[in-house]
Amino acid sequence: MTAERQKHLAVLVAIWGALVFAPYWMPLFGGYTALGSRVLVLGLGAMAVNFLLGFTGVLSFGHAAWFGLGAYACGLTLKFVASSTPLGLVAGTLVGGVAGGLLGALLVRRRGIYFAMVTIAFGQVFYYIAFQWLSVTGGDDGLRGFARQPLDFKLFRIDLLHNDVYFYYFVLVCFALAVGIMAFILRSPFGRTMIAIRENERRARFLGIQIELHIWIAFTLSCFFMAFAGALYALVNNFADPRMLHYSLSGDFIIMAVMGGMRTFWGPLLGAIVFVVLQDYLSSVTVNWMSFIGILIVLIVLFFPRGVLGLLRQRRTA
Amino acid sequence: MSVLEVRNLSKRFGSLIAVRDISLTVERGELRAVIGPNGAGKTTFFNLVSGFFAPSAGSILFDGRDITGLPAHRRVALGMTRTFQITEIFPELTVFENVRVAAEAAAGYRLRVWLNRAEAAELHRRVEATLALTALSAKADRLVGELAHGDQRAAEIAMALALRPHLLLLDEPTAGMGDQETYEVTQLIRRLHKDAKLTIVLIEHDMRVVFHLADRITVLDQGGFLAEGTPQEIAASEAVQTAYLGQAA
Amino acid sequence: MLELIFFNVTNGLIIGAFYALMAIGLSLILNLSGVINFAHGGFLVIGGYLAYVLTPYLGFWGALLVAPFLTALIGFAVERLLIRRIYGRDPLYGLLLTFGLAFIIEDGTRQIWGANGLPVSVPPALMSALSSEFFFITGYRMFMVATVAVVVALLFVLLRYTRFGVRIRAGTLDLETVAALGVNVRALRSLNFAVGIFLAGLAGVLAGGQLGLEPTMGDGLLMPSFIAIIVGGVGSLTGTLIGGLLIGVASGLTAVVFPSASEAVIYIMMALVLLLRPRGLLGEEGMLT
Fold first, then answer.
1. What residues contact B218, with CB distance under 8 A and at least 6 apart?
2. In this structure, which of A124, A166, A169, A266 has its CB flanked by the most CB atoms within 10 Å?
3. The domain B1-79+165-249 is classified under which CATH number: 3.40.50.720, 3.30.470.20, 3.40.50.300, 1.10.150.20?
4. A311-315: long-range contacts at Cβ-Cβ below 8 A with a sequence spacing of 24 or more?
C-alpha cells in the first residue's frame, strides 16, 4: 500500500514538474510555448469529456458545444462587456455550463448509442447558431476583436497578451484549479457513485441510487469543466469560431481520451499532447494530414482501445 | 406486523400473463422461500416487489405502507434490497470499494463531495463489519471481477447488507455453484437469518438449500399461486409433487 | 402566398425524401449492427464521384445504375475489413471507427478529384421545367423524388417478403435468437451494411446531379438524417421515412415565414419529440435506450 502510494506520488511530481518547466524544456524538442498552452487547454477539454465518459460511462458526442459556448461567451464578454480576463473566464464557464445542464436534463434518460446521437444533434444546434448569427458571432469568419487583458493586482500587472510564458503559467494555474476540483470530486462519495454507475447501472439502481439525477449532475459538471476549457481556448487564440462547436471537435476530444486511456485520470492529457502535437506536425508537412489522423483513429480503435495508460496498467497487473 | 404483504399481484406482458393473482404475507424475522418450476413467474414476482417494473394489478405493502407505485430507489431507501440471479457487481472495483459504495448510498452520502473525519471513520467501520460478516475481509483489496463465483455472490450479498435492509430479497443465490460454494452461501444466509435476524425472501432451485433454510415455502406454478406451508407440509403436498413431476415428465 | 407555400412544401418534400434516403440507410446499419455510421456522408460522396467517373463510359443512366452498386461493394469490403471487428464492443468504438473513416474518405476524395466542386451533367430531358405554371419544379427534382420513392418501396418489399428481409427485421428485434435459429448473422450484417451503403451511394449520385460534387457534400446531410431517425424513433424504418419527410416539410414551411430558421426548426422538432415522446414517433419502447 505504501509502496503504491509512493509510486503514485512520484508520478504526480513528475507530471506537475514536466508541466511547470515546460517553457524551458519544450524548445529543446522543437516545441514552442504557445503550443504548450494549447495542449494544456485541449487536454483539460479531453479530461472534462473523460470525466463523463471514463468515470460515469456516459458517451456524449456533443461536448464541443459547451467548449465552444464557453469560448464565445468569454470572447463576447471581453469584446462588449468588460475588458477583464477573469470575468471573461467566469462568464464563459457559466454560460456553457448552464446551457449544458439545461439540455442535459432533457437528454439524461437516453442511454448508450441513442444518447450519443442526441448529444451530437443538439450540439450542432449551437454550431448553426454561431454560423448564422452574423451580427453577434461573426459567422463563419469567427469572432474577432477581443484579446486577453493583463491581470491587474494593484501593485503590479501581469501582461498575458505579449508574454507567452506568463500566459502559459496563467493557463497552468487555471488547469491545476480545474483538475484539482475534478480529482477531488472523483475521490468523494459522489465520484465513487459515478464509477459505480459506469460499472453496473442496474446494480447501482438497486443500491438506491437515483441514476438519472446522478448522471445529470455528472453531465452538468462535465459541461462546466468543458466550458471553462473553452473560455481558456478563446484566450489562447484571441479568437473563437464555429468549428469550436462542431461535432468533429467532440470527436477529437474523445479520441484524445481514448488514446491516452479513458479509465485513467491523466490519460486524456497524454492523449491530447500526442494528438495536438501530431496534428500540428502533420499539417505542417503534408496536405493529407486528415488521412493520417483518420488512419490513426482506426488503428487506435482496432488495436489500442484501452489507450496508452490503460495498456501500461494492464501490463502491470498481468 | 408483517414486513411484506402482497395482495392479488398480477403482471401481464402483452397477452402473456407472467404473474397471476399472487398474495402472500411475510412476517418479521421469517425466511420465506419461493419455489416453482421454470417459468413459474418467480423472478417476475421479485421484479414487481423490488420495483423493477410496475404490476398490472394488485398492491404491495412494505411495513404496512403501500409501495406499489414507488420507484426502485425509494424502496431501497425504505429498507428493501435485492440481489440478482446473474450476479450484479462492480467488476473493476475492489471488494471494499463495492461495499463502500453501498454503505455510502445507505448513509445518504451519494451526492456528497466531502465527508468529515467522523463520518469517514464510521463508514469505514461499517464496511469492515459487513466484510467480516460475509467472510470477505481477507479479500477486501481484490478486484471483484477477478474473484471466484461464490465470492462474487458473497460480495453482492455484502453490498445488499451494507444498505442495512430489514428485508432482503435473494434471487437464486446458489445458481451455478458447486457443492462447496453452495454450502458456504447457504451458511451465510443462515447466519443472516439466525444471527442478524433479517427477514429474507429467497428464490431457489436447489431443494436442499430450501429445505435447510426456509421457515415457510410458497410454491408458484405457471404464474399462479400453487401452495404455501412449512417445509414438511410442502414436501407432503400432492399438488406440488404433480407440478414438479409433471414438469420432469 | 399560397403558391409560395405550395412551392416550399413541395421543396420540403423533395429535401425530405432525400433525408429519408440517407436516414434509412443509416437506420438499417444502426438497427442490425449497433453502429452509428459517421462515414455515411463519406459513402454518399463516393457514390457521387463514382457516377462522375462512370458517366463518360456508361452515360448518365448507366452510371446511375452502376455507381450505387459499386459503392455498396466498397461498403461491403469496409464492413468485412473494419466494421465487423467492433461488433459487440462499446458503441463508442463504432462511432470512433466510422469517424476516422469519414476523415480518410473526405481526404481521399479531395486527393483524387480535388477540393473544388465538379459539375455533373444531367440529360437535358430531365432539366426542363415541368410546366410554365410550376416552373420551380424541374423534371430532375421530380425524377429524384420518384427514384427515391421507387427504391424505398422496393426496400420495404424486400424487407417484408424476402427471407433476407425477414431476417433483417427479426435481427433488429433480437439478434441472439436469430443467431440461435442458425442464421449466419455475420453474413447478414455484411449484406445489410452493403444495402445501407447502397442507399448512401444512390443519394450521392442523385445529389450530384442537383448540386454538383464536392468532397464535403455529405456533411450537411448527416445531421438531418440523425434527426430523422430520432424523430421517427430508433428501430423503426417506417418511422425514419416519416421522420425524414416530416423534417423536410417542416423546414420547407419555415422557410416561408422565417427563412433563417429553416435549419433550426428541425432541431426544435427533435427537442419537442424528445420532450413529449422520448422514444420517437414509431420507436419501440426500450430499444437502444
1. B24, B32, B33, B34, B35, B225, B227, B228
2. A124
3. 3.40.50.300
4. A311/A261, A312/A261, A313/A261, A313/A263, A313/A264
Q: What is the C-alpha separation between A23 and A40, in angstroms, rounded?
A: 12
Task: Pick C286 or A271 by higher pLDDT.
Answer: A271
pLDDT of amino acid C137 = 64
Is A21 part of a structural domain of the chain? no
B115–A196: do the CB atoms touch at under 8 Å? no
Q: Which backbone phi and psi does C233 adopt, to 5 degrees?
A: 110, 120
User: Domain span at residue A142?
Assistant: 32-245
Please name the member of A114, A258, A294 whose beta carbon is closest to the beta carbon of C107.
Answer: A294
Cβ-contact B220, B39 below 8 angstroms: no
pLDDT at residue C250 is higher than 80: yes
Where exactly are the structural domains of chain B? 1-79+165-249, 89-164
The answer, yes or no, to whether ipTM is higher than 0.95 is no
How many domains does the structure of chain A reveal? Answer: 1
For residue A39 the three cell numbers come to 495542449
CB B67 within 8 A of CB B75: yes
CB contact under 8 A, A298 and C101: yes
Judge contact between C22 and C231, C-beta under 8 A.
no
Picking from B14-28, B208-222, C124-138, C143-157, which range would have the lowest pLDDT averaged per residue?
C124-138
Strand order in the sheet with B65-66: B65-66, B57-62, B2-13, B16-27, B224-229, B216-221, B31-35, B199-203, B167-171, B80-82
pTM for this structure?
0.87
Secondary structure (DSSP) of C65-90: HHHHHHHHHHHHHHHHHTGGGGTTS-
Query: Hey, which chains touch C, using 3+ CB pairs under 8 Å?
Result: A
Which residues of chain A neighbour C274 with C-beta distances below 8 Å? Answer: 106-107, 110, 118
Residue A282 near chain C (CB below 8 Å): no
- Per-residue pLDDT band for B164 (boundaries 50, 70, 90) equals confident
Q: Provide the pLDDT confidence category of residue C286 given band limits of 50, 70 and 90.
A: very low
Contact A125 C34 (CB under 8 A): no
- For residue A132, give how far its alpha carbon lies from the nearest alpha carbon of chain B (Å): 40
Q: Hey, are the CB atoms on B105 and A205 less than 8 Å from each other?
A: no
Contact C230 A121 (CB under 8 A): yes
Contact A263 B92 (CB under 8 A): yes
Greatest pairwise CA separation for chain B in angstroms: 62
Q: How far apart are CA A254 and CA A226, in angstroms?
A: 13
Q: Considering only CB atoms, which chain A residues are within 8 Å of B49?
A: none
Provide the pLDDT for residue B248.
Answer: 47
